Every structure is written in C-alpha cells, then in structure tokens.
Amino acid sequence: MKKTRKMTLLANFLAIAIVLNIIESQIPVIPVPGAKLGIANVVTLIVLYVYSFKDSASLMLLRVLLVSMLTGKLLSPIFVMSLSGGVAATLAMGFFKKTNFFGVLGVSVIGSVFHCIGQIIGGIFVIGSTAVVFYLPIMLFLSIPAGALTGIIAQRFLIIWQTWHNEVES
Questions:
Q1: If DSSP codes are grouped into helix, strand and coil, which group holds residue 52?
Q2: Which CATH number covers residue 101?
Q3: How many independent structural domains does the chain possess?
Q4: CA–CA separation, 132 vs 154, rounded Å?
Q5: Which of 100, 108, 109, 132 has the fewest Cβ atoms nearer than 10 Å?
Q6: pTM over cut 0.90
C-alpha cells in the first residue's frame, strides 16, 4: 500500500511539474530570452525533501524529457540546456541538502545558481562557442531571487505536507 501511495504521489508531482513548466514557458516574466523563474523546480525540491535524491532526479529527468516531447523541442538546444541545467541543479541540491547546513531556502538558491551554470555548459556544447558565458552574470543575478522564491514556496509546502502527512499516518 505504501509503494502504491508513493508512486501515485510521485506521478501527481510529475504531472504538476509538467503543467507548471509548460505554463511558465508561455508567460514572459523575465525580459531575458529563455529566462524563467523556474517554478517547476519547486516540485523537484519538494520531492528531494519529501522522498529522496533518486526520486527527485528521476522526476527532473522525466519532466524535462516529457515537456520537450510535448512541446516538440526534444533534442533541440533548449532541451539540451534545460537538461544540463536540471542535472547540475539537482546534483547540487542533493549534495547541499545532505550537508544539513543551508535549509530548503539555501538549497533552492544553490540549485538555481547551478542551474544557470549547467545551462551555460549545455549552451557551449550546443552552440560550439564560449560566447554564451557572457550571459552568466545576468543569469546568476536573476537566479538568486528566483531561487529564493522557489525556496519559499517549497518551504511553505513542506510545512503543509508535514501536517498532512502526520494526520494521514495517525
């Protein structure tokens, strides 16, 4: 029963992340080409704290793959940059969560910063030029408040989750 519940919740988290990603890509919030707040990453962060690094990484990989397939961008430069950013962010968040030093908010900001670094690395690979590195300062500048926002949202959700989880277990 617990495995079924976990699988069902993870499937719901994945669906929410996919919908958030697609909706967010349609709303130009930040006036930088391709820049987003990363609201779908809230779900990756929540799964990291509720379940495990493995579940969080699996969710991120599936989200990037499925959104790319649904939007017709599979194997495009956007896919490669999204995947490289997601991998870098998830690895960093998993590592820094394990230190128990930064908390949800700090881990989220670190993940946001590493997402930018991963995207730049993916961009260098796809474009074949290091010119994309010049976007890094503005991306990092924007990533800190975006990471803080996603961290605050995740933090509030985790408080609600803990209350709900305790009631379900009782």
A1: coil
A2: 1.10.1760.20
A3: 1
A4: 30
A5: 100
A6: no
